[in-house]
Amino acid sequence: MLPPTLVVGDPLPTALMLIRAFLDGLSTCFLTAAFAWGSLAGCARSPPQPEHLVPRAAELLIAVDVAALTGSPLFSTGWAHLEHEPAARSATDALRACGLSPAKWQHLLIGADANFHSVLVIGARHIGKPDRWRCVVERLAPRDIRPHDMTLRVREDDALIWALGEHRAIGHSVGPHLIAWSDPEWAPQVQRLAQGKGPSVVAGVLAPLMARVDRSHAIWAVARVPADPPPRLDLPSDGATALTVEMDLRHGVRMEATVQFGTEAQSARATDELRIALDAARPLAAWLRMPTGVLDAVQLHHTRELFHLDLRLRPQDVSALANRLKPGMDLPPH
Predict the structure, then answer these.
(1) Measured distance between the N- and C-terminal CA atoms of the chain, rounded to whole angstroms
(2) DSSP 11-51
(3) In this structure, are residues 194 and 172 in contact, taking their beta carbons and an 8 Å threshold?
(4) pLDDT in tens, 133-176
(5) In whole angstroms, what is the distance from residue 254 CA to residue 256 CA?
(6) What is the CA angle 155-158-162, rounded to 5?
(7) Contact assessment for residue 92 and residue 82, using Cβ atoms and an 8 Å cutoff
(8) Backbone angles phi, psi at 255, to 5 degrees
(9) pTM of this prediction?
(10) How does DSSP classify residue 103?
(11) Which backbone phi and psi does 99 adopt, to 5 degrees?
(12) What phi and psi values does residue 296 have, to the nearest 5 degrees?
């Protein structure tokens, strides 16, 4: 028996694409750090808050309290999947050996704009020490993820210069326990922010959205949909303008996501489209033997121009889902 087909229309509504992009960004967050994509500038003063190291032009912000995340069964399952990949296992082994185990990181913050400029800020003990990152590169297994043209060097100003082929990233530590990695285009701005100069994202277009979310939660995210997005983003023109996400992991999983639309009719249409998508996903979820309560835990509604998605999973639901998703679990016969 073949798996059921999930049909939700083409293109996907922006509401679903934004939420999926948030989850995708979260799932790749640790790999991004492990492969050292980035840049930031050092300074002698007390380290600034992570948000103050993201340029004002950022239109996406994802924050993760790593300590809260590691206590969830879903994290353990996701990490097990990650370490099944030889390249990822090599990276995490190198990080552990050099005293930078991702499981001991304190927080992560990702900022990006519509042109794919980005910065990743990591807070953890010793994470800002250049010698730890040199150790990581030296320990990476060459056959897995360290081609001959991958290099990491330290500039005279202690900036880390990472290179892989034609790709470049510049990194600066901000004290011994904070580092940020960004692409070269954002590096000068991040360097100034690390020195306490220039405007950050807290004074940018995301500021009103940041004020809406509870930033004490394990995970939160805000995003603005550009009025004229570049073709690379491939977003449908359905009126979505902004996204907020909050995720609490203290008692199971509770996620609240909102998407702002230009009109109430647009938010109502998004709600209807996502209900259809959820119904279409039920045969696939049943075929995969997913816990029955997962899709039932998703609630959709709209209030004027705001589309709302609420997900609440009890601890037993989270454990059941984590067990079903463990590496090596057999799929149903075809």
Answers:
(1) 4
(2) SPPHHHHHHHHHHHHHHHHHHHHHTT-------SSPPPPGG
(3) yes
(4) 888 878 875 555 555 556 777 776 667 877 766 778 888 788 88
(5) 7
(6) 60
(7) yes
(8) -120, 130
(9) 0.78
(10) G
(11) 75, 25
(12) -65, -20
